[in-house]
Design goal:
Chain lengths: 370, 370, 370, 370
């Protein structure tokens, strides 16, 4: 990245967000029918690269069906409301009616209920019964404790997801995750993150992960920047980690790790930008939380909003825009980039002249100052 | 353009919008009477370079008279409401009263009526009867289907206009436009676009076009950036395509192709900036939609807002400012750059010290960071 | 200035506004009592460098007394309301009550009354009777016509002020001003502008002017940028023209021309910035229009807002903050930089550690990106 | 810093605010329990580096207990309301109810009461009785007059704090502070500032100060930028002064002067940024003014807001968020970075992978354009 001097004792790279960049069509255009959106990770192929985020406002054992029906992957949060409560329906109903000003305290209370290993097992089993690819996520802090429950229950794809996940966690306690060892022993492919830099991503790739999550996982409502001061704008983070994928492929003699952008993709245009900047797939939260049949019923929150001492996100009221199916595949009746995400990605690639996701990663971009 | 590193795997040029640049007077000033605004394309000379956009809120068989009376060119959209309905008056009346929140769905419904070849013929014939230069536009998708109707009916200037039009469209279907061949066979001059880069424009120039449209044709209300992630800020796009004109003139042994900025010119100052950055003419939409005698009656929408699956624009309520004649030539009674477009361009050139459009393209500009 | 490529056919310098820069204290501080604010032009010395703008909302034959009492210069607009009407009091009263939405049309009507030579003579004579330094302004368009009236009536300082005034105005008519000849023949010192670049300023200095106005004279309410696209941010303009002063002093063998920033100084901090960037004096409008005893009574407009065909400014409602004396010298009871302009400039210089205006022009500045 | 040309006669460095930069996690993460927040100055060690600002809305003889209980330092303003009034309780009650629009005039009136030497003595003695580290501040203008009272009363840490404090104050009067001599003679460690540049800080360090304050001390409500035009964005100022600390340590043969960021840290993320940019400690105002048990009761003002002739700050209504203890150490029930400042700093360091404050100063940062 471009280097500037903040002051005599500190230099900094300039980093860009999705809003700072735009896509530039090439000298070719292409029929939409000729665009191929397939995304492959390990043995699994999906008909598009848009993953539903492991957030309780988006993915429930019920809503996973809609995502699978559209050919995509969704991830159930195994530390969320579905593994804390036998029947979380009353809690979801309460959340849907919370006065926004009281939301943080209420979420802190609702999520103070402990996670139960047997509920993890049961939810995964419910997902298995649907017959689709099953993916569930844990934070690195909980992975050591619950990983066995998850694996025994039989997930297809295991996701370790936190604000920042590193391959080298320094700890005094005994209960800590050795990522490399853990992934090596596991039979299922692992997706791990967030990370935001070339170096952190390269180390995560070396653990044997099938995919890395780029970004701090924060949705439309996270405030990590305000509370911790920590932020790497997504356009630069994705383009940096894409370089780690290339270099790791070289050093590993050909292992291709999926780079998965996670967070800050509120509109369909952001999904296209993420791919064009080098991502293989994207994790989307808020756009799906707007679905009439999403568990959040128009409200959206992440686990970081429920932290007992230091919440780092807010519940936001997004309203509803259409069904999950309409948000994924249209038809759209709004021009703000919140519906028909798959159609919009296809059209962006056709307009810019690219055939598949891998080719689209070469798309030219411009940086716009304002 | 200036090059920056977005991340290790992606570099980007920095691109500027009209808002990012301003004009700098030279050391000379000039009487307004000494400024010549003539614009010439093929055999046609107009007394100013401001073209009315092929949008149903701006150009109708009736409103073309006002534009012609002021010495300028207007383009009828041959895929718009006038070629879908024998008498679109009731639809325009309905649109004028639509609740804004319901506009997209209503436009999708109204524009689902098919385009009729015979209405294309009739509208062009109505225009011919007025005795002025006749210009009509089709999208590249429809050009193969309806071009014969258009040519037979006798347009003077044929416009092929889409979000992105390339000289190399990749397609499996048989019904696709070979631009170079099409233009070669046609007896009338062709204006074609949008495009936004040096390379794309150079290829369009090589098709034999008399003019290229720079920009994605989006008006005040288009959301291509949000929905597709695609955008090239206009100041950079115009200055890039102006270089293609120069280089194409060299490679073709002297063919001069008009560079026509299309979109994002909401105020008269933007028109002046477009010329100063290298445009020969400009296509204006929203400013004319504000006319009391424009078909939109203060509302403004583009065809992209009517797409059945993925609308990429919104109908906007602009209100009215004066008659088409006042918006073109004044007198203005507002200081916001929405009236007396021709007078404002003339004064900008006089203030900066330039005599004609070609000379004004050399005007110095500054980039302003905020 | 820093150079960037807008597009392949156009490069541009980056230019900064007062908002983009801030002053940096040196390693010294200084007692306020040790700061000297004297400004000298030709034979006239003023006890501070803040000039009241030739705008009808600011300077009237009555309000000039307050400015003179505080040791400063004010300029009467000799094309304004005082030379169009024998008694403009009713018009000022009408303007004070205009609904803002109707202001432009009303100002166009009120200012359609012709300027009278004998009223020019009378106003100057009224000013002479007050016993202070008399300054009056004409636009370059009117200077040839009325200059004799002005000179015969006996101004001390003659101001030629327009949006852009060049030393080389190209014209076919006979009634045009040859600036160099005009200034040479005149017995009184001339201040001339606006200009905004090194080259334009250098040519104005070569006409023999005692001072040049930097900026386009637009006040808080001008819209030249929107209407004409013309703008040079003031920080860069002042720093550029200061270099012309230095180079002209060299080429002329020692003639020192005052560089006078004119426009965009809405707060006292902007006045300090203008000096620190190289200005010798500043012309202030809106801050004085907020005075309870200013002719505008809290409303503010410039001549450009009254243009019959193409108004390029708006009347703005500023409200009132205190008397002219309080706005100039305090005490201030607000922290927004609109009162005690002289005290604020003195304190800025003391805080930064500088003794007089000339020394303060060396003050370090930083550019702040947002 | 990066250098740009503002205009031909002026160059400027580009300077960044806390909002312009963000922290980048390293490739390691760390348990929160392994993070050490200790800050040491002279003989005093505090369990965290967050100092309560010498502002009457934040620190009173009563509120100092809460800060000490949490292991931190607070500074009583010895020119504030507690040394002007024997019992300021009625004034604080009046301030808490002032209509915001009348606040400046009321503060000017309340603070026109003179400072009394015997009240300085009494307040310090009250603080001593609490048994914690006692710190009090004077402005450089008052230091000569009241320093003896302060020292005799027995402060542990003496703070000289003004908008800009230089080691070389130029004055004609006799009553001026020779900083170097003053500090040399004093038995207690001195913290002195504000300053904002490498050079100014280096000169302050050479006076023998134990710590320098970086920034102009302005809180959420100061308007020095608008009134004086003076501003150095904090991120650049801190990184510049950190370089002065390093160079002074070299030139002095090992004396380590604390760099203390003072101002513009409205959220916990800003505290983390200040340390990461090179600060050893931070002075926080507005966050504490939000405490239910702060003297301001949700309102916040600095001494600069009380200046009789040229107020340079405003009283702001912040509202209340929790107790001082909750704001310092949580638990937080809001996600906006205003509560649990210590927990947030600890988590930022753990997330980024750093162990103590000194190590955290090496944290990578990025500059974000928007």
């Amino acid at each position: 990245m471009t280097d500037v001097e903040v002051g005599r004792a500190k230099r900094a790279r300039v980093a860009y967000s999705f809003d700072d960049v735009s896509l530039v069509p090439s000298r070719r255009t292409r029929d939409m029918e000729l665009v191929n959106l397939n995304w492959k990770i390990d043995a699994y192929t999906f008909s598009h690269p848009i993953i539903a985020a492991p957030m309780d406002s988006v993915v429930s054992p019920e809503s996973t069906k809609s995502f699978a029906a559209a050919g995509g992957l969704s991830i159930l949060n195994l530390e969320g409301i579905w593994t804390r409560y036998e029947d979380p329906t009353p809690m979801l109903a309460e959340i849907a009616k919370l006065p926004i000003a009281e939301a943080t305290r209420a979420l802190q209370r609702i999520y103070s209920e402990p996670i139960k290993g047997e509920l993890i097992t049961r939810r995964i089993s419910e997902l298995r019964d649907q017959g689709y690819t099953v993916a569930g996520s844990l934070s690195p802090q909980r992975t050591a404790q619950f990983a066995q429950d998850v694996v025994k229950a039989g997930v297809d794809i295991f996701v370790i997801r936190g604000t920042t996940v590193s391959a080298e966690h320094v700890s005094e306690g005994g209960d800590v995750l050795n990522l490399k060892e853990f992934i090596y022993k596991l039979d299922v492919p692992v997706i791990v993150g967030g990370c935001a830099t070339y170096t952190a991503a390269l180390h995560l790739m070396r653990t044997g992960a099938a995919g890395v999550l780029v970004g701090f996982g924060g949705g439309a409502a996270h405030t990590t920047r305000d509370v911790l001061g920590v932020r790497v704008p997504m356009a630069s983070a994705v383009a940096d980690v894409a370089a780690a994928r290339r270099d790791y492929m070289d050093e590993s003699g050909g292992r291709y790790v999926s780079v998965i952008a996670d967070g800050s993709m509120g509109r369909s245009g952001d999904v296209a930008k993420a791919i064009a900047l080098g991502a293989d797939a994207v994790v989307v939260g808020s756009a799906f939380a707007r679905a009439t049949d999403a568990p959040g019923q128009g409200r959206h929150w992440g686990l970081e909003a429920t932290h007992p001492d230091l919440p780092r996100g807010e519940m936001v009221e997004l309203g509803t825009a259409g069904t999950l199916s309409e948000i994924l595949s249209g038809p759209s009746h709004t021009a703000d980039g919140t519906m028909n995400l798959i159609g919009a990605l296809r059209r962006a690639m056709a307009t810019c002249g690219y055939q598949d996701l891998k080719e689209f990663q070469r798309c030219e971009v411009v940086v716009t100052p304002n």
